[in-house]
Write a structure and sequence with these properties.
Protein name: Leucine--tRNA ligase
Organism: Brevundimonas variabilis
CATH class of the largest domain: Alpha Beta
Bound molecules: ligand ANZ, zinc ion
Structural class: alpha+beta
Number of domains: 6
Number of strands: 35
CATH topology of the largest domain: Isoleucyl-tRNA Synthetase, domain 2
Distance between the termini: 68 Å
Family: Belongs to the class-I aminoacyl-tRNA synthetase family.
CATH superfamily of the largest domain: Valyl/Leucyl/Isoleucyl-tRNA synthetase, editing domain
Radius of gyration: 35 Å
Helix content: 25-40%
Strand order of the largest sheet: 9-12-13-11-14
Largest sheet: 5 strands, mixed
Subcellular location: Cytoplasm
Catalytic activity: tRNA(Leu) + L-leucine + ATP = L-leucyl-tRNA(Leu) + AMP + diphosphate
Length: 863
């Protein structure tokens, strides 16, 4: 018997697929299935995580194809972004060359994996044909009012004189200059995602059961819809200089302070008002009061992320004003500015209720402000008090006049009714979600197709001048955006009045590029952004697969853009991904030398001495410390490149391994032993097919048993694949291969049936091996075109069944018997049953007649 040689078999089968153009999408009018893996960023190499992701998609694509679907399974490149510019700055390589070289490299690596991808649809988001169409729809959204300009805050590096992306700010400092980063206001472009906030939340309900609950919840929290009230607090006391504001401008001495609350039921527990450090009123006072100005400055140097603010110690300053309580004007409260109040949420001002909000409580304890409990838990009485922990649980209002005795929900409704009646507030819904700032002061991105005219303001680039192509003659020798300092590119005439004007030099956030690529794949050469007939045929994506790190931004932006493009009439599907699967990571043990240096797995010799594992560095002989199992990363050197595995064990063994060891949603640990096991399985399968001849005579008992096992395997593998339980499908295949081996004596008809099913069941996982096996069975065509095996429910059913035993129509016991047992066997078993015996003798009954319904029930007629 010959060994299976992946080195020759795999290229041989890949060549057959290529000759047949086997993966070019066919539209034959059968039901469609669109399977898509999140397209990669062309960083340089395909890593194990990519490989696992694409192999999962391939299992879905290949099985759906066999099951009779027209399958769309495309691939492309999310190719704009910072790393290309960094390469340009650090190594003087042009971003375009760097990107396309990486793409070429990664395409070859991906092709090695034997994926059933339609490469004829490939594109990169940095292709002008792609981003030009993006510019076209961007302008359509602009005309529809979904794109607008306003001031936004950016990270400014004062030494490099450049805007930094968030990931370039490390511990509050510029990644290159090390200078403390400043916040600057810059006029930027925004997409009105907030218009779709409710629609985006509503859509999540329909994705129940089709998207991971965790992802749906994360999106809901990100959008952060909350019901509450806006409350106006009249000014009771203010410094004299505040009343001096000129006519027509806000008068801080007269205009009430507006706060947003989700807990209007706690209004009677208010003990102070707090404004954000950059609230307009704080600023006005800071202009007069040095200690307020100092406070503002201290806050500005702190991080602005919500997480950082949450962590920071509470800090504030008394602004020297007082406001009146909306329900009791005689009662006045002090106004503070506090570092935990965000300027970007609600109205940038709160009322503090220390008894029922932890932040407020920490603040009140620090500055000695009153703590007034107004909600008491069940069982507590009027003496209920709060110590160092705010009470945020359910309860009943007290110390709250007309709200006393109401539940929280009822008290909220009543408080809002009273606020509205007194014109001191209104019920309000607010969202955490902000409009999407898409301006990036970067070269390697999609140019924003706008021209700024000194007379007419921002003007659209006319349709016949699209795409606005990035100039290639740019330099990266100085920081900042090369587009902004390009000598010619940005100087144009105004399309409206023909005077000298300048192009917008900001480019689009790369999340815009990835917010619609799945729609473009339905017809990547369309002369419009989206060919609506093609989009109608293929969208939504039936199965989308990718990392959970995209649970919010990418997936939310894509859902928003689909809705916006659909409202603009460019496509009709609003919910782009009907099914979502988020896969786990590929992890690997880490190895470290005594001097702290990480060592690559290929340079490690592992020994296992009676369960005690030790590691030695191959190149130096030094003893190593075996570290944690972590996500493969360059910094810890625990990366195993797919290419290495593929060249030693073959593609199929690698594919099998990344799917076999743990459920797809969990992390999988890469171990040399694991892939060797997969490789042995490949050999075992081949041994069943190699030299197979259909000449053995029938052998009824063994044949029946093998056929039953075959149908059971078909059922289990089919259900495993459909339910994304690839590891259990593979486990079943391992077991089935052992079963086929054990039934060596089967006749050739039964054996052929078993092997024919086996070849087709392994095909999604180990497609090259499957083709070889299929050929060994005498088929000249591709297994790719063979239909998925079907199971006969009767044959796939369990061998043993439980038969209920009735006595005169009432269930009194049960027996477990082989399926299809004859009536006499069933009768004997039923009569011998202990429960039945006990019942009969206890009631003095004698069995007169036995009725057996095969595989269903036994009925004993007794009196
Ligand atoms: C009074 C109050 C009493 C509050 C109480 C909470 C508990 P969510 O639910 O996350 O939306 N808040 C409002 N605007 C804020 C801002 N700009 N920065 C920081 N905090 C702000 O949070 C809503 C609550 O967060 C609001 O309800 C407000 O505090 C605070 F027992 O008002 B609450
Ligand atoms: Zn003009």
């Amino acid at each position: 018997m010959a060994r299976y040689e992946p080195k020759t078999a795999e290229p041989r089968q890949q060549a057959r697929w290529a000759d047949a153009d086997a993966f070019v999408t066919k539209d034959t009018g059968r039901p469609k299935y669109y399977v898509l893996e999140m397209f990669p960023y062309p960083s340089g190499n395909i890593h194990m995580g990519h490989a696992r992701n694409y192999v999962m998609g391939d299992v879905v694509a290949r099985s759906k194809r066999a099951q009779g679907f027209d399958v769309l399974h495309p691939m492309g490149w999310d190719a704009f972004g910072m790393p290309a510019e960094n390469a340009a700055m650090e190594r003087g390589i042009h971003p375009k060359g760097w990107t396309y070289d990486n793409i070429a490299n990664m395409r070859e690596q991906l092709k090695l994996l034997g994926l059933s991808l339609d490469w004829s649809r490939e594109f990169a988001t940095c292709d002008p044909e792609y981003y030009g169409q993006q510019q076209a729809w961007f302008l359509e959204l602009y005309r529809r009012g979904l794109v607008y300009r306003k001031d936004g805050v950016v990270n400014w590096d004062p030494v490099d004189n450049t805007v930094l992306a968030n990931e370039q700010v490390i511990d509050g400092k510029g990644w290159r200059s090390g200078a403390p980063v400043e916040k600057r206001k810059l006029n930027q472009w925004f997409l009105r995602i907030t218009d779709y906030a409710d629609d985006l939340i509503d859509g999540l309900k329909e994705l129940e059961g089709r998207w991971p609950d965790k992802v749906r919840l994360m999106q809901e929290n990100w959008i952060g819809k909350s019901r509450g009230a806006t409350v106006w607090w009249d000014i009771a006391e203010a410094p004299a200089y505040l009343s001096a504001s000129p006519e027509g401008e806000p008068n801080h001495a007269r205009d009430p302070i507006e706060v947003y609350t989700t807990r209007p039921d706690t209004l009677f527990g208010a003990s102070f008002i707090a404004l954000a450090p950059d609230h307009p009123l704080t600023k006005t006072i800071a202009a007069q009061e040095p200690k307020v100005a100092a406070f503002m400055e201290a806050c500005a140097s702190l991080g602005t992320s919500e997480a950082e603010i949450e962590k920071a110690e509470k800090h504030g300053v008394d602004l020297g004003m007082r406001v009146r309580h909306p329900f009791d004007p005689a009662r006045t409260l002090p106004v503070w500015s506090a570092n935990f109040v965000l300027s970007t949420y609600g109205s940038g001002a709160i009322f503090g209720c220390p008894a029922h909000d932890q932040r407020d409580l920490d603040f009140a304890r620090k500055y000695d402000l009153p703590v007034i409990p107004v909600v008491r838990p069940e069982g507590a009485d009027e003496t209920f008090e709060v110590g160092t922990e705010a009470y945020v649980g359910p309860g009943t209002a007290f110390h709250s006049e007309f709200l006393d005795g109401l539940s929280i929900e009822d008290a909220k409704a009543e408080a809002i009714r009273r606020l509205e009646a007194a014109e001191q507030g209104v019920g309000a819904t607010i969202y955490r979600l902000r409009d999407w700032g898409v301006s990036r002061q970067r070269y390697w991105g999609c140019p924003i197709p706008i021209i700024h005219c000194p007379k007419c303001g921002p003007q659209e680039v006319p349709g016949d001048q699209l795409p606005v192509v990035l100039p290639e003659d740019v330099t990266f020798d100085v920081p900042g955006n090369p587009l902004a300092r390009h000598p010619t590119w940005k100087h144009v005439r105004c399309p409206t009045c023909d005077t000298d004007a300048v192009r917008e030099t900001d480019t689009l956030d790369t999340f815009v590029d990835s917010s619609w690529y799945f729609a473009r794949f339905t017809d990547p050469t369309s002369a419009t952004p989206i060919n609506s007939a093609a989009a109608d045929r293929w969208l939504p994506v039936d199965q989308y697969i990718g990392g959970v790190e995209h649970a919010v931004l990418h997936l939310l932006y894509a859902r928003f853009i689909s809705r916006a493009l659909s409202d603009a009439g460019l496509m009709s599907v609003r919910e782009p991904f009907a099914g979502l699967f988020t896969q786990g990571m590929v992890v690997h043990e880490t190895y470290r030398r005594a001097d702290g240096q990480w060592v690559e797995p290929t340079d490690v010799d592992l020994t296992n001495d009676a369960g005690k594992r030790s590691a030695r560095q191959l190149s130096t002989g030094e003893t190593l410390v075996i570290g944690d199992i972590e996500k493969m990363s360059k910094s810890k050197k625990n990366v195993v490149a797919p290419q290495e595995i593929l060249s030693t064990h073959g593609v199929d063994a690698g594919r099998l391994f990344v799917l076999s060891d743990s459920p797809p949603e969990r992390d999988v640990q890469w171990t040399p032993g694991g892939v060797e096991g997969a490789s042995r399985f490949v050999q075992r399968v081949w041994a069943l097919f190699d030299g197979f001849e259909a000449s053995a005579p029938a052998n009824p008992d063994i044949d029946t048993a093998l056929i039953r096992e075959t149908h059971k395997a078909i059922k289990a593998v089919t259900e495993g694949v459909a339910g994304f339980r690839f590891n259990s499908a593979i486990a079943k295949l391992y077991a089935f291969v052992a079963t086929v081996r054990d039934h060596e004596q089967a006749g050739s008809a039964a054996r052929t049936e078993a092997l024919s099913a086996l070849a087709r069941l392994i095909a999604p996982f180990t497609p090259h091996l499957a083709e070889e096996c299929w050929a060994a069975l005498g088929h000249s065509g591709l297994i790719l075109d063979a239909p998925w095996p079907e199971w006969d429910p009767a044959l796939a059913a369990d061998d043993e069944i439980v038969l209920p035993i009735q006595i005169s129509g009432k269930r009194r016991g049960e027996v477990t018997l082989p399926r299809g047992s004859d009536p006499k066997t069933v009768e004997d078993a039923a009569l011998a049953n202990a429960q039945v015996q006990a019942y009969l003798s206890a009631n003095g009954l004698t069995v007169r007649k036995v009725i057996v319904v095969t595989d269903r029930i036994v009925n004993l007629v007794a009196n």
